[in-house]
Write a sequence for this structure.
């Protein structure tokens, strides 16, 4: 996976996490039975590292890759799974959440940082989970000064 372009840390995390879980579910220990190539996994990792998809979506993409032989990019494109990272598209959702939740704004400004999580969650809900949560959080922080 590293030779195919994945960072060593990300590759290790995937092998010790999702790949090991998948092998355990299959009752196997030999990685030779993997139905996804190291190159395919590296491409999936690259999508998460670049913020194209979230780690949660990446796990779903792996499941689809496993049985279909399709690439991560093909699945992301076909299923419309890419995160929305365009700030102009997210600005509107952030503004709507701020307008609809004045209590959360007041709580955040009073130091209750968990209110930010609530507001980010509202944008995630409105975007059907496609908004990039880091970008959304940054937009809220900027808007709330």
């Amino acid at each position: 996976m590293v030779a195919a372009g994945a960072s060593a840390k990300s590759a290790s995390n995937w092998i010790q996490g999702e790949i090991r879980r998948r092998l355990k579910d299959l009752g196997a220990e030999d990685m030779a039975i993997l139905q996804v190539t190291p190159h395919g996994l590296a491409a999936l990792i690259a999508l998460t590292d670049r913020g194209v998809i979230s780690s949660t979506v990446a796990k779903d993409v792996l499941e689809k890759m496993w049985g279909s032989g399709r690439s991560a990019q093909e699945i992301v494109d076909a299923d419309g799974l890419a995160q929305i990272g365009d700030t102009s598209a997210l600005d509107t959702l952030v503004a709507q959440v701020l307008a609809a939740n004045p209590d959360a704004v007041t709580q955040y400004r009073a130091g209750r940082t968990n209110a930010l999580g609530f507001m980010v969650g509202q944008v995630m809900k409105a975007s059907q989970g496609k908004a990039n949560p880091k970008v959304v959080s940054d937009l809220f922080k900027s808007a709330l000064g």
Observations:
- The mean pLDDT is 91.
- The radius of gyration is 18 Å.
- Residues 8-79 form one domain.
